[in-house]
Write a structure and sequence with these properties.
The protein is of the alpha/beta class. The chain folds into two domains: 130 residues, Toll/interleukin-1 receptor homology (TIR) domain (Rossmann fold), CATH 3.40.50; 168 residues, Endonuclease, Chain A (2-Layer Sandwich), CATH 3.30.870.10. The protein is 36% helix and 21% strand. The strands form two sheets. Strands 6-12-11-10-7-8-9-13 form an eight-stranded mixed sheet, with helices on both faces. The protein has a five-stranded parallel sheet with strand order 2-1-3-4-5, with helices on both faces. α8 links the parallel β7 and β8. The longest helix has 21 residues.
Length: 341
């Protein structure tokens, strides 16, 4: 996109319940001389929402995402910020309204924190500092004898603790053989997983285990294009959809063979993380979160492990996120042979 094509400085993306914040932000930015676009004022009755959203993203220099629990549950909001990431990598500024976890693709982004802010002056100061940056000191800065008390010591923005480990396949899925009876999974697809672990899955099912599979909808062309844009290797949306359908056929076979023990749904949301929850409702809950699109090398993905008894708040937050994705999913109907997909 060339600078001549930019019409707006900011597109404001938000959930309808957060509209008062969006209206306030729009007023603030316009008062500072910025051109903005938002659905409440610029999308009209009879408009095609998707086309209007696409226009807003394409013609804006940056997308400001008002992030909250309500925004996390709106597929339209996810479509807006992911479209902005594809159109202009790094062009999304998250504005935090509550403690809802950001999608992993946005966690490296510098964000504006309005959590708990109750007065207009503080909110305005934080927004403008986030957009314009903080001014450098104009006078000489003395050497900080006590760095912990200096106003100018850089602080780390991301820390990785001992729970972060490579290669989910070496750690998470062998628990199938460790006596667990409930497994909830979500991923880009299960072809590779089933290729490696179908024997273990069938053995666990024979022993009475239950599995839940949540997968991207291969019939959603927009979603397939997003996955292709974010993929390290497979950049062909049609091939991605084909592989998902192949995996869905194998899961459908498990569903038919082990009736009542396998649940399978597809989602039209972009799964920004891959979840693996073992016995999620039990005291011995084990949660694995694969960082979508993040690799140490071509053969290693980074995976975070959390135990319910050790990190209950962290566990519950991701547990609720998975449940929301599952509730918004839909049963997959395998196309009959000879029919178009």
């Amino acid at each position: 996109m060339t600078s001549a094509e930019v019409v707006y400085d900011y597109f404001i993306s938000y959930a309808s319940t957060d509209e008062p914040y969006a209206v306030w932000l729009d007023s603030l930015l316009r008062g500072e001389g910025h051109a903005t676009i938002m659905s409440a004022f610029d999308f009209y009755a009879g408009d095609n929402f998707v086309l209007q959203m696409s226009h807003a993203v394409e013609k804006s220099r940056c997308t400001i995402l008002l992030w909250s629990s309500d925004a996390a549950g709106r597929s339209a909001v996810h479509l807006e910020w992911t479209s902005a990431m594809i159109d202009r990598l790094g062009s999304v500024i998250p504005v935090l309204l509550d403690d809802t976890h950001l999608p992993h693709l946005l966690r490296p982004s510098v964000r504006i924190d309005l959590r708990g802010v109750a007065d207009d002056a503080t909110a305005k100061s934080r927004v403008m500092a986030g957009i314009r940056g903080v001014d450098r000191p104009t006078s000489p800065v003395p050497f900080p004898r006590d760095p912990s008390r200096s106003d100018y010591v850089a602080q780390p923005v991301l820390s990785l603790d001992s729970r972060l480990r490579p290669r989910a396949d070496q750690e998470s899925f062998p628990v199938i053989a460790r006596g667990h009876k409930v497994f909830w999974l979500a991923a880009k697809g299960f072809e590779a997983f089933l290729h490696q672990y179908e024997t273990s899955v069938r053995s666990a099912l024979t022993s009475g285990a239950h599995f839940r599979f949540l997968m991207h909808n291969p019939d959603n062309e927009v979603l397939m294009s997003m996955m292709a844009a974010l993929s390290y290797g497979n950049r062909d949306p049609a091939r991605i959809a084909e592989r998902l359908r192949e995996a869905s056929g194998r899961i459908a076979d498990l569903e038919a063979t082990f009736e009542g023990q396998v649940e399978f749904r597809v989602t039209d949301w972009l799964l920004s993380t891959g979840y693996t929850l073992c016995d999620p409702e039990g005291a011995d809950g084990r949660l694995y979160i694969e960082f979508f699109g993040f690799r140490v090398s071509l053969g290693e993905r980074m995976t975070l492990l959390a135990l319910r008894r050790r990190e209950p708040k962290f566990f519950e937050a991701h547990y609720r996120s998975y449940q929301t994705q599952w509730r918004n999913g839909q049963p997959w109907r395998q196309p009959q042979k000879g029919t178009s997909t």
